[in-house]
Write the structure tokens for this entry.
Amino acid sequence: MMDRSSAASVDPASAPSPHDAKIDAKIDARTDAKGLQEALYEQMFANDEPGPAPDAKTEPASQRRWPHLRRGAKIAIGLALIAIFGWLPLRAVWEYSSVEAVLNSRLVTLRTPIGGRVAAAQRLTDQARLDAGTVVLRVVNPRGDRTRLDDLRRQKSRLENERPSLAAKLASAQAAQKDLARQATQFRDGRVLQLEARIAEIQTSIEAAAARREEASAAVDRASSLAKSGNVSTVELARLTRELSVSQQIELGARKRLDAAMVELAAARNGSFLGDSYNDRPSSVQREEEMRQRAGDLDADLARIDTEIAWLASEIITEEVRFADLSEANITTPVAGRVWEMMTSPGEDVQAGQPLLKVLDCSSAVITANVTENVYNRLQLGDHATFEPNDGGAPISGTVVNLTGAAGAPANLAINPDALSKEPYRVTVALGDGAAHACTVGRTGRVVFARQETAP
């Protein structure tokens, strides 16, 4: 009883009339611009149907003018709506514009150069902005191969241990060589003095022999004169003559010994020693030469060891750098941008070449758009274009840089061009001030291309 009474007490004027419900249903069913115009037209002229005429005598003049004003306002509103919804399709027909467009940018995929475990270099959040050269991740490989580095270090240690003993041997050989050289010098000086004394002795012998020769010659001359007178016998003359001959040969032999002594002196001064009981050089000189050769060999070995140590030191430095590169790698961003996708997490084991994260390149913004076939056939590379964002932002100028048509577009973009599926013909527009808009990837809008008159 209460429900019926409350239902009966409801004001009939507040309930929707069948005529209004019919109009709402038509408006809901017609979602396009033409259907909306028809529904508005029906709603504006629904009250203009003829009905029972009121009493003209009792109706005031102001009430007679009100329906005309209301009808005029409805007509003006309808004409405005028709102009607005009719201008948009007309502008789309006259302008070379895209069907869909989105602000896009290149992606830089950072990969690990080595295998190991990922460690966070700094706290990163999604969409975090990064400067160029920022270390974002670190890959550590505790099981790096250091066999060659250890071998090089062992070889260097062995050579460094051998070097002191070799240097001591070289110093000893050089000292012995100096001592033997001193002995050889003393021997040569003594030999020269000895030969000079012998030459002086021979010269004295020559002088004595010459005196005896002269005496014998005088005796022979006297005996020859006496022999003619018979005072000296023939035998005495023959003896004196023999003594003269002997004295002459003695003088000649002394002069030959002097020549030989002069030859030995000249050789001794030049470092060669002539004699019957030894070779051209004495044993001290020969030992000095042997020690000099040994010292030279030891010096060469020492120089070789020093060269090998220096080479091993440089190789160790190179190997340490290589081992450090294989043991730990810093993942840095080559460009300024922001993190687009994290493909790993700290503590995860990764392999060499595995992608770790993707960075949005904030300096290479492009517009990815799709157009109709008619517009696509009129476009050329280098045409001017303007991107008009749907959020009412300022237009962005650009240039057409790629016309891929129905072919597959480049895949290193943040938003895959295949996501624009209303038309298959795709166009890429490079922004003139891409650095200022690169990190606003995802803004939608439309691209208006500059009209160019085609030659007849």
